[in-house]
């Protein structure tokens, strides 16, 4: 078939100061649920354990994974320096790169380089791959098309990003509408120095949506007519969602088209966002007015903008540093355990987070294991099975799940009044061996501060609490329990903790 050949274009946007944003509305076509989208598991999250198995080594700072839907069973893996390697489960990791664009890539600084990859929806015929990278000579974040047949690289869209080397974003994914989505960070530095998050005259701090199957006028792509800022004076029409700090990794749930975003925080809160199809166009995720659910910069909160709340936040105070957005599991092998469950991790703590819609407007949450150190990206095969890559030492790992008996159970009662509350917790060893020396870790709701405790040695660090055994209750026999509790102040939210871990193992909550 004839292939597309589009001209290279560098877009230069004039920067405008926008004090208020007009109301916008648009709705993409909501996808029908694919027949092979996978089951919805009802297994309690604390009864699930995540594991990884290394299947390849020798990668040099891998950053992203893509699976061509061509029946080959291959995975394409980007390396920071500007190469793409191929892995096949039967033959392993090929030594010769499939793609080498090192001559075009600025890999200076820890966060620059080749950052994202997506194969065209018609890859089997077109053999086209889309790449996101920071380009020489000045680190501009760039979207380009690569033709595997003639090894040509065609830049389609670029955003200046010279001042700071961090917060480049870089995720690429084709949505259920076959348009290409691309995330770009806020321009780097600290505290959103360009005020990018709440501006719509810049591509910084955004997720973009463009049609790369054709060109329009002088553009090497087309802007879909239902993008929310089409026709809005001073706004970049490519913008799909905004108010993001560094959306390093996002993904679409193939079952319902939901967009899941892992947005790296400033230092107090990491956040995960979920936007259903009707919620996506024009969604404002808050940065830098807010970090997570907490006001970060009051000066960026004007204009009456409606902010979309994250569905999950966590504090980096227990060793975390950067959320690595994952995917909703839609494979078949582990559908009975984690079908419909969103799986993510953190670059520093390696905690595996599991989130699941509770059917009542909230989300169940649990820590269900550990990934290898410094995971940078999740990827899925065309059948929906999950893999991760880690930065150093540079490996590819297959993700698996098993059902386990929870090690502990928490029952909790609380009494709230005015600005205070008391909480009583019963910690039961549901395992088969004694627990000798224990630490119970759990988060408090925003605005809760513990002022005293009993039957435990308790420390609060931000929102995170570590309750350790006292000298007289350090051993809990199988089936036995200990009673602990605390007195806390609150600023209005009196809700109980939503997750607990005992010595690193998730606890069930309730009788």
Automatic annotation (TrEMBL):
Pfam families, sorted: CBM_2 (PF00553), GSDH (PF07995)
Annotated SUPFAM superfamilies: Carbohydrate-binding domain (SSF49384), Soluble quinoprotein glucose dehydrogenase (SSF50952)
Domain of life (superkingdom): Bacteria
Matching InterPro entries: 6-blade_b-propeller_TolB-like (IPR011042), CBD2 (IPR001919), CBM2/CBM3_carb-bd_dom_sf (IPR008965), CBM2_carb-bd_dom_sf (IPR012291), Glc/Sorbosone_DH (IPR012938), Quinoprot_gluc/sorb_DH_b-prop (IPR011041)
Signal peptide limits: 1-25
Record-annotated CBM2 domain positions: 401-510
Keyword vocabulary terms for this entry: Carbohydrate metabolism, Polysaccharide degradation, Signal
Protein name stated in the entry: Glucose/arabinose dehydrogenase
Keyword Cell membrane: no
Signal as UniProt keyword: yes
Coiled coil, from the record: none
């Amino acid at each position: 078939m004839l292939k597309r050949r589009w001209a290279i274009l560098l877009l230069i946007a004039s920067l405008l100061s926008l004090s208020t944003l007009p109301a916008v509305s648009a709705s993409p076509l909501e996808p029908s649920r694919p027949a092979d989208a996978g089951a919805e598991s009802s297994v309690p999250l604390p009864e699930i354990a995540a594991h990884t198995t290394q299947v390849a080594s020798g990668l040099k700072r891998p950053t992203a994974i893509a699976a061509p839907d061509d029946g080959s069973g291959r995975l394409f893996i980007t390396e920071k320096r500007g190469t793409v390697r191929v892995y096949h489960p039967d033959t392993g990791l090929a030594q010769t790169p499939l793609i080498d664009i090192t001559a075009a890539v600025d890999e200076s600084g820890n966060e620059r380089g080749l950052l994202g990859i997506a194969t065209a929806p018609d890859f089997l015929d077109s053999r086209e791959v889309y790449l996101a990278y920071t380009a020489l000579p000045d680190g501009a974040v760039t979207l380009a098309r690569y033709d595997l047949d003639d090894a040509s690289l065609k830049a389609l869209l670029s955003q200046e990003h010279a001042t700071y080397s961090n917060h480049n974003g870089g995720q690429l994914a084709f949505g259920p509408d076959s348009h290409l989505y691309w995330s770009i960070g806020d321009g780097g530095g600290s505290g959103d120095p360009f005020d990018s998050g709440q501006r719509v005259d810049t591509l910084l701090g955004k997720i973009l949506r463009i049609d790369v199957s054709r060109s329009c006028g002088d553009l090497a792509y087309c802007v879909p007519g239902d993008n929310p800022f089409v026709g809005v004076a001073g706004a970049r029409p490519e913008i799909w969602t905004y108010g993001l700090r560094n959306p390093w990794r996002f993904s679409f749930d193939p079952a319902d088209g939901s967009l899941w975003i892992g947005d790296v925080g400033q230092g107090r809160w990491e956040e995960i966002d979920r936007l259903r199809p009707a919620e996506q166009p024009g969604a404002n995720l808050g940065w830098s007015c807010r970090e997570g659910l907490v006001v970060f910069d009051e000066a960026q909160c004007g204009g009456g903008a409606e902010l979309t709340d994250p569905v999950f936040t966590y504090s980096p105070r227990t060793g975390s540093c950067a959320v690595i957005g994952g995917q909703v599991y839609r494979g078949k092998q582990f559908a009975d355990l984690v079908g419909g469950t969103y799986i993510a991790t953190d670059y520093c703590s390696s905690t595996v987070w599991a989130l699941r819609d509770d059917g009542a407007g909230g989300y169940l949450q649990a820590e269900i294991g550990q990934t290898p150190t410094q995971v940078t990206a999740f990827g899925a095969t065309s059948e929906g099975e999950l893999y991760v890559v880690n930065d150093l030492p540079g490996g590819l790992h297959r993700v698996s799940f098993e059902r386990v008996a929870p090690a502990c159970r928490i029952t909790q009662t609380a009494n709230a009044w005015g600005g205070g509350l008391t909480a009583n917790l019963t910690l039961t060893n549901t395992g088969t061996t004694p627990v000798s020396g224990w630490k119970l870790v759990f988060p408090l709701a925003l605005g809760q501060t513990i002022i005293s405790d009993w039957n435990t040695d308790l420390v609060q660090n931000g929102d995170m609490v570590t309750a350790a055994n006292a000298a007289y209750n350090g051993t809990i026999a199988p089936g036995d329990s200990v009673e602990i509790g605390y007195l806390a102040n609150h600023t209005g939210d009196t809700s109980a903790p939503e997750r607990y871990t005992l010595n690193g193992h998730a606890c069930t909550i309730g009788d």
